[in-house]
Specification:
It contains 10 helices and no strands. By secondary structure, it is mainly alpha-helical. The protein is extended. The termini are far apart.
């Protein structure tokens, strides 16, 4: 019993020592890189807000049993107005976010084809992640998918609000196409969020702070990481050259260059003055020659 008690006390002392050591030695934070700007992140969150608002209004629009707008505050009329506004808001956010991403997603490289062949590394559990640029092949395909299906969803959603200006068959087809595109878009967005955010830890930092870890960029976007690294190193070199202390020889050279520039400016000013004085001298000479000819005649 005594030996067990001593062993237990020693184990507790060891655990407390390790915990204290862990507290006194903080974990070193991973290096992060500013990869996404504020405007790009704002576009993404605007689209998320527009999509969620459209989903909420669409549920009340398609399934009248779900009474999201009571009759006391407007009922169906208010819901119809909200649906039209949601469609307009969704189209603006869609074009603002995915439309500006479209030029990047139309350019395909050899590593994008490799990404598709390996299915982004999601097919196997421990398969290596294929290389990619700023947007991998899956994100490029989702951009095209969201633009096509989203435009169909938004345009048909606006079209069903003007039934008296369109033929009945067109309105009926727009209703069916609007509902089908809504279901397809929701399923596609859920799959996108799962594979690219839930199953890919670290990507959410691109939308929150815009500063993912250096390890995440090296693993999932190595080509983009090299571009960012080159840009950051170039900016850092320029900043150092701008703020570093200059030597005596460099100061002398800069002073000589400044003097040469000043002398060049003075020379140009003198030449311009001479050019202004020349016409006056030529006039005086002409007058003198005329007077001489008159006297000679």
């Amino acid at each position: 019993m005594r030996k067990r008690r001593i062993a237990g006390q020693m184990a507790k002392a060891r655990v407390s020592k390790l915990t204290k050591r862990g507290r006194t030695e903080p974990v070193k934070a991973e290096k992060r890189i500013q990869a996404v700007g504020g405007f790009e992140r704002a576009r993404a969150w605007i689209f998320v807000a527009a999509f969620l608002f459209s989903c909420l209004v669409e549920v009340g629009w398609q399934w009248r049993e779900v009474n999201i707008v009571p009759d006391q505050i407007g009922g169906y009329r208010l819901l119809s107005t909200l649906h039209l506004g949601a469609m307009c808001f969704f189209l603006v956010a869609l074009v603002l976010h995915f439309g500006l991403r479209l030029p990047f997603c139309l350019v395909w490289r050899s590593y994008d084809v490799e990404w598709l062949k390996k299915l982004g590394g999601y097919a196997r559990r421990y398969s290596p992640v294929p290389p990619a640029g700023k947007f991998n092949a899956g994100q490029k395909l989702f951009t095209l998918f969201a633009l096509v299906v989203g435009l169909i969803y938004g345009i048909t959603g606006i079209g069903i609000h003007i039934p008296y200006k369109l033929p009945p068959d067109v309105v009926r087809g727009a209703l069916n196409l609007h509902f089908a595109s809504f279901i397809i878009l929701v399923c596609g967005c859920l799959l996108y969020v799962y594979f690219f955010y839930v199953a890919t830890p670290g990507r959410l930092a691109l939308l929150t702070s815009g500063k993912p870890t250096e390890r995440f960029l090296r693993m999932h976007h190595p080509h983009w990481y090299e571009e960012l690294k080159g840009r950051l190193t170039l900016d850092a070199v320029r900043e150092r050259l701008r703020h570093r202390q200059k030597s005596r020889e460099e100061e002398v050279v800069e002073m000589e260059l400044a003097e040469e520039v000043a002398e060049g400016r003075r020379g140009k000013a003198a030449e311009s003055e001479v050019a202004k004085q020349k016409p006056q001298e030529t006039r005086d000479q002409e007058k003198s020659t005329e007077s001489e000819t008159q006297q000679g005649g």
